[in-house]
UniProtKB/TrEMBL annotation:
Compartments in which it is found: Cell membrane
Similarity remark: Belongs to the nicotinamide ribonucleoside (NR) uptake permease (TC 4.B.1) family.
Organism from which the protein derives: Panacibacter ginsenosidivorans
Membrane topology: Multi-pass membrane protein
Name of the protein in its database record: Nicotinamide riboside transporter PnuC
Length: 204
């Protein structure tokens, strides 16, 4: 596809973007900003975004893995909201690094999720992008779980998710959502840097 064709598809896609998608993108970006600041508002804003995208993915774009992912986001947001407000010894849960066990569990969880989602999409749906849809969703499943536990590495999983989601949504004609993932990618890199800076003094 030439640059001219990509540009034209971008313009056409922006013209057909609905106001509801703009609302969803607004709350999605707000949620990532709050996450970077370690602010509890990451969850209520995120829930609005994920409920809307669950509907979009199933009803508009036939992105079934992404639709199930956004439903999972909603459930995990409720769980994360609880974990982030829970106090241990009078203090809220701190940001921490993965240990070897955490890495083993998270990578295994990602691989199993990717294989399972790919198999379901390939054999039981009319998905035209089973590889990309399953990969992005599996990485995001892992990132959301890590974020709920305040692990620094959650940002690495979000970076991977965003890199795959940008072309995935563009291909499906969800151009403004694709732009959202470009913003998410930048914010994920910034979030990783911010959380690393936050955790250093705690370990000093």
């Amino acid at each position: 596809m030439s640059l001219e064709q990509i540009t034209q598809e971008f313009i056409d896609g922006m013209k057909t973007t609905t106001w509801l998608e703009y609302v969803a993108v607004f709350f999605g970006i707000a949620s990532v900003l709050f996450s970077r600041m370690e602010n509890i508002l990451v969850y209520p804003t995120g829930i609005i975004n994920t409920v809307l995208y669950t509907w979009f993915c199933f009803s508009w774009w036939n992105l079934y893995a992404e639709g199930s992912l956004n439903f999972y986001y909603t459930v995990m947001s409720i769980y994360g909201w609880y974990v982030w407000t829970r106090k241990k010894e009078g203090k809220v849960i701190p940001i921490t690094w993965n240990n070897k066990k955490d890495w083993l569990i998270s990578v295994s969880f990602f691989i199993i999720s990717w294989i399972a989602l790919y198999y379901i999409l390939k054999n039981h749906t009319n998905s035209t992008v089973p590889w990309g849809d399953s990969f992005a969703s599996a990485a995001a499943y892992t990132g959301m779980w890590q974020m709920a536990r305040k692990k620094v590495e959650n940002w690495i999983w979000w970076i991977i998710t965003n890199l795959v989601s940008i072309p995935l949504y563009f291909y499906k004609g969800a151009v403004f959502t694709s732009v959202q993932y470009v913003v998410f990618l930048v914010l994920a890199v910034m979030g990783l840097i911010t959380w690393i800076k936050k955790i250093k003094p705690a370990h000093a």
